[in-house]
Specification:
Order of helices and strands: HHHHHHHHHHHHHHHHH
Number of helices: 17
Largest sheet: none
InterPro entries: TPR-like_helical_dom_sf (IPR011990), TPR_rpt (IPR019734)
Protein name: Kinesin light chain
Number of strands: 0
Distance between the termini: 61 Å
Keywords: TPR repeat
Structural class: mainly alpha
Amino acid sequence: MHMRQLAAKFLRRTHFPPQRFSSSSEITTSNAWPNSLSSKTKCSYKYGFGGPSWRMNSMDCYLWTILAGQAAIILGINANPVLADEPRESSSQNDLDTDSMFGFRKIEDGSVISNEHTAKWRLFSDKGREVFLQGKLDQAEKFFFSALQEAKEGFGEKDPHVASSCNNLAELFRVQKQFDKAEPLYWEAIKILEESFGPEDIRVGAALHNLGQFYLMQRKLDEADKCYERAVKIKRRVLGLNHTDYADTLYHLGMVLYLLGKEKDAEALIQESIKILEENGMGDSITCIRRLQFLSQMYLKSNRLAEAEDVQRKVLQIMELSKGWNSMDTVIVAERLALTLQSIEKIKETKELLERCLEARKSLLPEDHIQIAANLLHIARVAMLNSNRLRKINISEAIAELDKAKDLLHSSTRFALFYGKVLAQTVLI
C-alpha cells in the first residue's frame, strides 16, 4: 500500500478543505500567534557529523541529539542561530548548523499599540528573544516575566498575547530543564488560545506541537502522542495535506510511534513527511536529509539493510550535488553508506567508497587527524574481509590482501597513538 494511504489509514482522518479565516482573525503561516518562540527544531550538528560508527548508535542518542540540540545554540556553540519567522519545519532552509532546535518565532499579530503596557510587552518580548539567543538565560527569564506581566495588564489575563508570553517562558524553562515550571505554562497558553480562537485553530495546533516536543524530550511518549495526534488533526484540516508545517508534526508523531514500538505506522508517517517536502521542492533541504537519515537508521536497526542502502544512496546523491566532495558532510554520509555496503558484503564498492572518503579527508584535515586513522581502520577491515573471501579462491591474492590490511592497521595505529599523545599533553597543560 502507498505510504500516503498508510498514513491516512493510520490517522483515520477525513480531509477538510483549508480553513478560511475572517478578517478579524486572518492567519497565515507567518502569524500563528504573537511574538512566540518557535515550535520548530533546529540542530547544531551537520548531518550527524562527529565521526562514523560501525554500528548504528542507539535511537535514544539520536533522538536526544535532535531534541536537545537547542542547548547548543543557546550556549553559544552555534555562532549563527537562525530566527524563524514562520511555523515551518525547524530545519527547513539554511539551517545546517541549527537543525533540530527550537528557535524563536517573531510574529506580528496586527494589533495596535494602544498604551504603555502593550509597548512594553513588545519591547520585553523582543529583548527576551535577543538575549535568549545570546545564551543569557537569566536575563531572558527576567524579560519574559516582564513581558508576561505587561501582557496581562495591557491585554487582559486571557488574551493571546498572554499565551505567547506563557509559551516563551515555557520554552525557556524547558531549555533549563525546569520541567515542573514549563508544563503549566504550556497548558495555560493552550487554554487561552482555545478560548480565544477555538479548539481547532492553527495557533492551538502550533502550541500543541510545542507541548508534544516538551513531552517527547522527557520520554513521556503517551502524552507526546496525544499532543501530536491532535496537532496533526488541526494542521491537516487547516493547512491541508501538502503543507510543510503539517509534515513537521507528522514526522514528530512518527518518531513517537517508533519509540512506542509501532514501527509500521511510524514508517508510514515519516515517509509521508518526506514526500511532502519533496513535493514542495525541498527534497534537497537539510530538513529532508535529516528525515531520510532517521529513516535509514530505522531500517538499519531492524536489519532492513537493502532499504537502508537505498535511502543512504539518495542522501549521498543530494550531498554530492549540493556540496561536492570538498565537504566533510559529504564524507560522513558516504562513509555511512560504505559501512552499510560492507554489512551486505558489497566489498568492492565499499573499498572504493572508503578510499574516496580517505582521499577527501586527507585534503580537508591535518595529516595526523584521528578521523584519517579511523578511515584507515575501516579500509583495513574491508581488506581482511576480502582476504577471508579469497582464501577459497586464490590463496596468493588472499595473502596480498592480508598484507595490505596489516599495513593499513599499522598506519592507523600510528595516527591514533600520535593523536593520543597530543591529547594527553593537552590535558596535562
